[in-house]
Amino acid sequence: MDIDNRRIFIRKQAEIQQGPVVYWMQRDQRTNDNWALLHAQELAISMHQPLIVAFCLIPGFLGATIRQYGFMLKGLAVTARKLVKHNIQFSLIHGLPQDVLPRFLLEAGAGILVTDFNPLRLPMDWRSRLAERVEIPIHEVDAHNIIPCRFISDKAEYAAFTLRKKTERFLHDFLTEIPSLVRHPRSQDSHDKKLPDWNDVGKYLNVDHDVPEVDWILPGEDAAREAMARFIEERLDVYNLNRNFPDKQGQSDLSPYLHFGQLSAQRLAFEVQRSDLNPGSKMAFLEELIVRRELADNFCLHNPGYDRVSGFQPWAQATLNKHRDDPRPYLYSIEDFEPGKTHDPLWNAAQKEMVRTGKMHGFMRMYWAKKILEWTTSPEEAMEIAVYLNDKYELDGRDSNGYAGISWSIGGTHDRPWGERSIFGMIRYMNFQGCKRKFDVDKYIQENLKSEID
Ligand code: FAD
Ligand code: FO1
């Protein structure tokens, strides 16, 4: 197997015991192109042991609603079936990992635990608490990033250009073909091939059911691969032209698959790179998928305040403090923002797009967050409202890309200072006129407010 050791972080040193290998699947919820699963299988084969995959279903996660849980669980059902077909046991366990995994591992007689990488505060906390409660080794494998996050930099990178130099240096090592999972040669004698009753898991959830599931995207790793192929076939060639125009279908729409780990970013980058399409579009897409995305994980791993004003650069905190008392032309509360009831039809249209589809256009997310800074009493309130709405309605929410994107918009993270103005200070400003010059705002407003008018 050619897993690169620079992908593996020893989360807990201990004596490997004789027993099955367990992969605690958390962020990367797929059988295909999953380095953590491949590492676990390689260990199990070398130890002549069965391989078990465990997923801990948590009753609530960062404000996720039935919209996100529905998408995730339907995707997990596909992955569970594929694992069993590979003679790999799949176990769905209910509760927090540090509470339920120790007993599960003991009962399975596990020899070693493998998990994947997640830089967010809560998932990191699960991993460290678990490490205190088990006696077997824990290997953490970064299956989410093309260049492993812990390897590429040991500090918060200031901007895309500082990280880009490092990605260019190591991309050749890591943007490779990915081996396939093999049918596992051994299974637990007590291997319960029984799959969870997915219709029954809803009762373990404690989530808001008022945000409906969406139907424009099919969950699961098989649908993700098809969507990837369609994007490369139909939209990649003009990605550079259309991606920043909210009135055009220019983006890949793959972020929900990437967020839940139903699609490997390395697979996507590998297929894009070897396509013979417009080099400008390929470069633009890989810049987002590799540099921007890895910058977000780097930000969350090395900056505890990734979702707060305290996580902004000092220059940004200083400039926002200086303008803290500037008069706000409009002031709105969450009661105005959530239903999209501001004076600005463009902002309202973006909010409606997110509430209705679970995916606001990438360009509009910048405008949307910046206006929340302009129309609230403080940067702290702006961050709170932007994170709350983003994590409640976006299918791809609760993701390092989101915290980095909101921090970029409101706190200039990974951006530079711009000309000083009221409220924003030197944080980059965006306004309606700027959008009007750039794309057909009337068309975008019509499309997204029409459900109001109908
Ligand atoms: P495409 O343009 O097709 O890009 C392909 C992939 O590249 C994306 O799926 C994503 O993984 C990555 N990517 C693209 N743009 C960015 C970016 N600016 N930063 C990091 N990665 C990027 N992204 C999320 O995944 N979840 C979020 O909750 C989220 N919230 C955001 C909030 C704000 C205020 C801003 C400014 C950006 C946010 N983003 C978020 C980043 C970006 O807008 C989305 O990743 C993108 O719109 C997803 O749609 P797509 O997959 O069709 O994008
Ligand atoms: N990860 C889990 O291990 N168990 C869960 O029950 C779970 C629920 C969940 C719901 C919505 C969502 O957006 C993410 C969720 N995650 C869960 C975490 C997710 O898989 C990612 O690890 C994080 O969002 C970080 O990217």
* Shape field: globular
Number of domains: 3
Average predicted confidence as pLDDT:
96
Oligomer: single chain
Short précis:
Helices cover 48% and strands 7% of the residues. It is of the alpha/beta class.
Structure description:
With 454 residues, this protein is α/β, with parallel strands linked by helices. It contains 19 helices and six strands. It has three domains: 1-144, Rossmann fold (3-Layer(aba) Sandwich), CATH 3.40.50.620; 146-178 and 220-302, Alpha Horseshoe (Serine Threonine Protein Phosphatase 5, Tetratricopeptide repeat); 309-453, DNA Cyclobutane Dipyrimidine Photolyase, subunit A, domain 3 (Orthogonal Bundle). Strands 1-6-5-2-3-4 form a six-stranded mixed β-sheet, with helices on both faces. Ligand FO1 binds next to strand 3 and helix 2.
